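The freezer alarm interrupted the setup, so I double-checked each line after restarting. Inputs confirmed:
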Amino acid sequence: MADTIQTRMEKIENYIHNLAATANQLKAASFVENDKMHGYAIKQSEILLNELDKEISNLKRMNITDELMEKEINTKMILILEEARKIVDKRTPQQFL
Amino acid sequence: MTQTINLETRFTEHLKTLENEIRSIRENMQIISSGKGRTGHFNKISENIQRMKETLLIIKRLNLRDEAINDQINKKIKETLDNAIKSLKEKDILKETNIPQQTNEMRILNEIRITNEMQKMDEIQVSSNDIGVSEKKLAESPVPEPQSELREVI
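Predicted 3D structure, all chains:
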């Protein structure tokens, strides 16, 4: 089953959290001039940034109103239209002029 | 006039902000990986990440589900009403140009009808008054006193 908006948001939150940790690692590696750690942090942040881009693109393509919501919308619409009909039925033709 | 920006637009705007922050992080990362990174670049990355976290919180607070439902309902109601008005106009029931004319015609007709009825009522009342009052007056009016000169003569 395809990811919901909420699942994608959770993924993004996770990636941002990991990116913050990797940025700290990179900063530390730069200060202590640890090339191995520096290289690893750069690579790791690239992966995370790519994943973030991918998830954001997916979110952009997603329709906010999914199928389940469509059903709920239709049920609510029927109720609203029934209420509207009740109001209209009570009016005399003169009241519409 | 206040303008309501719909949910989808706001959602897309926030996603764009996230994309911009990612682009900025990439640029700073490239500078750092080339060995030209300074404290400022690291700080910028931290700021970008902080802004991303804030944007994510805003998106979470959007209450996507409820707002999306309301947006869709409003859209559908507008469509339904537009269609109803369109079909009424097509059937000449709600032709804007007809409304004042109909109202005027109806008003004039009503005025004529009311005037006629009032005239009839007046006529009936006048004739009944003539009969009723004259009889009543005759019955109730006291016999006039003879005038003083006449009284003396008598």
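Quick read of the result. Helices of chain B lie at 7-33, 39-61, 64-90, 98-140, 148-153.
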